[in-house]
């Protein structure tokens, strides 16, 4: 475990990024979480230890947590699926404020703009 964490730190110094995909935040070592710059959270972390970890990562932003807890389960609908996400980190031009960015990913790309940018 220590060797792996050291490898993450060392390679990051050289500009090499890592991607970690997990169904729970608690399954990732705290040292690994500290090395991550961009977070993308999907549905399912709204309770218990996962919510506490999520709250800590986003700096306790109550409004962001409230919005995240209102995510609909993508499997709950019978129609077209929408997959809600919350991101934090240098992933968009808005990231300088430290405010999470919310978006819906769709499996029907032609409607992505219409759903996410109500013009």
From TrEMBL:
Q: Which InterPro entries match?
A: P-loop_NTPase
Please give the name of this protein: Uncharacterized protein
Q: Which organism is it from?
A: marine sediment metagenome
């Amino acid at each position: 475990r220590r060797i792996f964490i050291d490898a993450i730190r060392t390679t990051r110094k050289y500009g090499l990024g890592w991607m970690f995909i997990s169904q729970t935040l608690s399954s990732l070592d705290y040292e690994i979480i500290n090395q991550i710059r961009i977070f993308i959270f999907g549905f399912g972390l709204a309770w218990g230890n996962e919510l506490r970890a999520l709250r800590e990562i986003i700096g306790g932003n109550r409004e962001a947590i409230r919005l995240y807890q209102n995510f609909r389960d993508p499997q709950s609908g019978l129609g077209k699926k929408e997959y809600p996400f919350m991101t934090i980190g240098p992933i968009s031009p808005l990231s300088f404020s430290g405010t999470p960015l919310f978006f819906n990913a769709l499996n029907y790309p032609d409607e992505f703009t219409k759903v996410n940018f109500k013009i």
